[in-house]
Amino acid sequence: MDLKKKLIILNTTIMLGLGSAFAIPSVKAESISEIQSERTGIQSDISAAKQVIQELKKEQSKMNSQIAQIETAMKENDEKIKDTKQEIKDTEKDIDSLKKEIKALEERIAKREEVLKERALSFQESGGDVDYIEVVLGSKSFGEFVNRVGAVATIVEADREILSQQEADKADLEKKQATVEKKLQSLKDMEVELKGMQSQIEDQKAETVNMKAKIEKKESETEALKQSLENKDAGLEAQIASIRENIKKEEERKSSEKADLDRAAEEVNSSNSSSKESAGSSKGEASASSSSKGESSSNSSKNSSADKPSASKTETSSKPSSANTGSAITAGYKYIGNSTYVFGGGRTASDIANGRFDCSAFVAWAYKQAGVNLPASTGALTSAGRQVSKSQMQPGDLVFFNTYKTDGHVGIYVGGNKFIGSQSSTGVAIANMGSGYWAEKFNGRVVRVN
Which residues sit opposite 413 in a β-bridge? Predict the structure, then answer.
């Protein structure tokens, strides 16, 4: 094979080797760019996940504050339940004691009746006036008996003392019986209130458990998402590192091959004539010039594409304005998500400052902010205005619900089948009375405050 052919083969080999040396890293560089682009998207998602976690921690702090309020209310309500149970026990003891006293009074009265009859008989046997016996034994009732005996002028002073004691015991008996009846009614009322408190406690406990479960689930899901994204990003980072390592090895291999080819070219060129060497050199320069022009054209095309401006987007936002449904309604908005239900709460400045209300106290407080004084009990609120039909309900009307008792819960209608009130499970909140629990409990009573 002559030197010219060898030179052509060598130059071709050099060009192919150089082309291969730069083509493979170029492909791998494009892979790195794609992977890096994917990493950028993942890192953006990681940043978003971190933002969610930060917002979650804020929400968690707020929820923990609400839970603390609910737990405090639960403790207070538990204490009230204990006090009520003890009061019921004390009342039952009082009733038992009164019943024993009543029984003793009845026995004393019965014995005195026998004594009076015996004394009347004895009076007759000793020669007393027959009219006296007829008066005494002819009476149809104890009251008539006492009146007749008292009317007999011949009765002895001892009999008068017995009759006086009898009248005193009779009055005491009537008084104690009235007391027993009153305590029994009080006991029944306490039992109803106790059931109400227990119902509120159960609702509050359920809500606390639900809130804690939501926090734990949301936190777990967000942390899992963040960990998954970080793992994926780490995998892509390792993939890029591997590609770069392969590129480095490939470049080292091609560099070694190029050095070998350079040495071979030098050997060929040294044995070739100066004229042929000059001709080969001219061809190489022409080829290099052509390659340079091609690269310049390619770069110009890429730069032209890169210089194109990207379209910008603008976003507009609008904030809906809330309808003014009356100061009695809007006054309570500040407590939404920042209050807790306390049985008997809302009647002191401290309770109001800390958003601790029961349903009726909240309604009374809200209307007081509107300059209207209302009673703070559901029973009294039923008569705080005129009754209207539920088909005529309008914002500001009082709406009542049969919970643990008739009219056991009250709120302020805000429109759209919703009302605001202090609910046992949520504190002050707007609830739906068009369906679900409150729709079932709504008894149709609507009171329009005068």
Answer: 419
Q: Hey, what are 65's tokens? A: 């504050």
Locate 98 and state its tokens.
Answer: 């009164």
Side-chain-facing half-sphere of 295: CA atoms under 13 Å: 6
Segment 94-104, tens digit of pLDDT: 888 878 888 88
Q: What's the CA gap between 407 and 410, in Å, rounded? A: 7
316: left (phi over 0), alpha (psi -120 to 50) or beta: beta
Tokens of 240: 């890029």
DSSP structure string for 129-194:
-HHHHHHHHT-SSHHHHHHHHHH-TT--HHHHHHHHHHHHHHHHHHHHHHHHHHHHHHHHHHHHHH
pTM of the predicted protein model: 0.51
- What are the C-alpha distances in Å from 347 to residues 2, 11, 87, 361? 115, 101, 22, 6
Q: At what angle do helices 3-125 and 142-151 cross, to 10 degrees?
A: 40
Which candidate, 182, 436, 408, 425, places its Cα nearest to that of 417?
A: 436
- Residues near 230 by Cβ (< 8 Å), separated by ≥ 6? 46
Strand partners, 442: 401
As a whole number of angstroms, the distance between CA 49 and CA 54 comes to 9
Which pLDDT tens digit goes with each residue over 261-310? 878 777 767 766 555 555 555 454 444 444 444 444 444 444 434 333 33
Asked if residue 42 lies in contact with residue 236, where contact means CB atoms within 8 angstroms, the answer is yes
* Residue 430, pLDDT score: 93
Predicted confidence at residue 304, as pLDDT, reads: 39
Lookup: tokens for 351: 């309770």
- 316 vs 16, residue with greater confidence: 16
CA nearest 187: which of 84, 88, 82? 88
Q: What is the pLDDT of residue 145?
A: 60
Residue type for 373, please? N
pLDDT, averaged across the chain:
74
Distance CA 263, CA 196 (A): 101
End-to-end CA distance of the chain: 120
Given a contact cutoff of 8 angstroms between Cβ atoms, the answer to whether 407 and 377 are in contact is no
% the chain with pLDDT above 90: 22
